[in-house]
Amino acid sequence: MATIAQVAEAGWDTLQKSILYYQGQPVGTVAACDAETDALNYDQCFTRDFAISAIAFLLRGEPEIVRNFLITALRLQSRDKQMDCFKPGQGLMPASFKVQTQAGNEVLDADFGEQAIARVAPIDSVFWWLILLRAYSKTTGDFSLAHREDFQRGIRLILDLCLIARFDMFPTLLVPDGSFMIDRRMGVYGYPLEIQVLFYAALRSAEELLCPGGENDDYITVAQKRISHITYHVRQYYWLDLPRLRKIYRYQAEEFGRTAVNQFNIYSEAIPDWIEGWIADNGGYFVGNLGPGRIDFRWFAQGNLFSIFTALADEPQSTAILNQLDHAWDSLVASMPLKACFPALEGRDWELMTGSDPKNTAWSYHNGGSWPFLLLPFVAACQHCDRIELGHQAMAIAAERLQIDHWPEYYDGKHGRLIGKEARTPQTWTIAGFVAAYELLVNPEKLAMLQFDPTVIMACDTELGELRPT
Ligand code: GLC
Question: What is the tens place of the pLDDT at every residue in 77-101?
Fold first, then answer.
């Protein structure tokens, strides 16, 4: 049987075939090279998928394609102030783009969600771009790209877009359903963890990349303030472990005013049955969503794993998340790492929350399916916490199947033993996730490109609402 290293090498070769060229330059990777299935938009370069490829390219010492992508995405960024609701808002970056030929010339055709299935908004694109720009700068030591005036303006436009005051008054970002990797209706509207963690990492990237002076000073101050508020908010209110579960179970409800303990008015009746037996004594995790009268108790992998190495989670929380993964290995990893979300929505919940979506039936695709690209954040999280044996274990499981199965997009089943019903093969971020995870296993110091200083200054504001740090 092939070793992890051999599978990674084969993956690296296959990854080359997904490279997308524009005017002779490599600018991205297509989502899948599947010749047998209807391409839909899988022949495009998706920002979030390319982020995983980009990390693989950076880790393998090939930054050029990442640089070209960053420039291309910046060119595609929507620049005009918009009052027209059918045009992408100022600062937005596309979900995906493709290269087309018009009158003999190559042109880029970007999709900001106006063509995507269900017209979902790609809110995560701008966050990935910022995270990548920082990873590129840190890895190559070339900050001159990020410091270029067009890049500085691009960063400010993104901050304008996501830091603007809206109707709600939480430090987290309010988004519609399907605004990130789970780009279908799955009850992930509101304040999903997956978006909050990317938002936080993007703010930290922006704060680092903006050159001090002039108008940037205000942006830096506002970003720092928001980083401290969101850090406090997520660590405090999204956190679930046994002590907190016990507290929620005995919560008083209908409290009014500043002294309320149960600020979100969560009813203990909303605690799902599976949680009591599932949560480890020494485990914990950030819940999937939090809003008025609502905790979504589901586990979401990407947000929890990213929170570890980006230092959104504090140290004890990071340890507890990995303890939870270890404890619940059979439900989260089993035969293929890693479940994007757990547990699956079934029966009436599936009908109501997904709109009876046949692609997202229980234990399939986003709804309890297993996504190998998550190996990258998984190994990164293990590395960060000195628990690399867990990372090795997951990689060994994946190495047994991925190459033989031609790198499927996802796996189905409670144990991840079935190639996803509609999975593309080969899927680029599956390959890139494995290749990048392997590179981190052998070069742990390179993880620095995704890590942030763990000391976040928690603001002590006094003109406070109840949800701010005191
Ligand atoms: C699917 C996934 C999405 C991914 C895209 C391209 O739509 O849900 O996360 O970006 O395919 O692979």
Answer: 998 888 888 889 899 999 999 999 9
Contact 126, 158 (CB under 8 A): yes
Residue 461 scores a pLDDT above 70: no
* 8 A C-beta contact, residue 259 and residue 282: no
| Mutate-to-test residue for ligand 1 from 29, 43, 49, 195, highest number of ligand atoms within 8 A of CB | 49
Pocket test for ligand 1, best of 180, 181, 357 (most atoms within 8 A of CB): 181
pLDDT digits (tens, 9 = 90+) for 199-222: 999 999 999 999 999 999 999 999
CA dist list (Å): 100 to 20, 22, 109: 11, 9, 7
Q: pTM of the entire structure?
A: 0.96
Half-sphere exposure of 16 (CA within 13 A, CB side): 7
CB 230 within 8 A of CB 195: no
Q: Is the pLDDT of residue 463 over 70?
A: no
Q: Is 46 in the pocket of ligand 1 (CB under 6 A)?
A: yes
CA 204 to chain centre: 15
Q: Looking at ligand 1, which residue's alpha carbon is closest to its atom 3?
A: 181
**What is the distance between the alpha carbons of residues 288 and 256, in angstroms, rounded to a whole number?**
25
Which of 44, 46, 124, 427 maximizes ligand 1 atoms within 8 Å of its Cβ, making it the mutation to test the pocket?
A: 46
Residue 185 Cβ inside 6 Å of ligand 1? The answer reads no
Q: Are the beta carbons of 278 and 240 closer than 8 angstroms?
A: no
For residue 80, how far is its CA from the centre of ligand 1 (angstroms)?
A: 27
Q: How far apart are CA 329 and CA 323, in angstroms?
A: 10
